[in-house]
């Protein structure tokens, strides 16, 4: 009886030894499942990248406006912000030399209800609304309407 048990144990060990490696079909199925999952995740990754770029552009433009307001107060002069599509340039009123520039990335569309915004030495800013729109149709609005001396960044919204 003992030899028979030893033979069965040897056969089981041999079967388990051969089964420890994955077959080609099993690996192929795992790769196909991973490819399907990656394909499903790609649109979300693109939207996330577009939203990050939109938020970064909006915050950069807000910081740019804060800088212009501070420069106007410190120097006691009116600063003019010229808005031309995605390009923003600033200068002191009555001077030709440019003060500073900012350009939004090409993937961000910029609209404004004014071509020029004035920053006054007393801290006031002209009423303006600047809309930044990403390729995924999300947008951020920067506005001075209803606020004194700041450019407020409104929450993100779908167009």
Overview of this structure, please?
Helices cover 44% and strands 26% of the residues. The chain contains 2 helices and 9 strands; from the N terminus they run ααβββββββββ. The protein has helices at 2-19, 24-75, and strands at 79-84, 87-92, 98-103, 109-112, 116-119, 129-133, 138-143, 152-153, 157-158. The strands form 2 sheets. Strands 4, 6, 7, 8 and 9 form a 5-stranded antiparallel sheet that branches. A 4-stranded antiparallel sheet has the order 3-2-1-5.
Throw out a few tags for this protein.
alpha+beta, 159 residues, single chain, 26% strand, four-stranded antiparallel beta sheet, five-stranded antiparallel beta sheet, 2 helices, minor pseudopilin epsh fold
Q: Judging by the overall fold, what is the CATH architecture?
A: 3-Layer(bab) Sandwich
Main sheet characteristics: 5 strands, antiparallel
Quick one: how many beta strands?
9
CATH class annotation: Alpha Beta
In the CATH hierarchy, the third-tier topology is known as: minor pseudopilin epsh fold
Short description:
With 159 residues, this protein is an alpha+beta fold. It has helices at residues 2-19, 24-75, and strands at 79-84, 87-92, 98-103, 109-112, 116-119, 129-133, 138-143, 152-153, 157-158.
List the helices and strands and how they pair.
Blueprint (H helix, E strand, L loop, with lengths): L1 H18 L4 H52 L3 E6 L2 E6 L5 E6 L5 E4 L3 E4 L9 E5 L4 E6 L8 E2 L3 E2 L1
Antiparallel strand pairs: 1-2, 1-5, 2-3, 4-6, 6-7, 7-8, 7-9
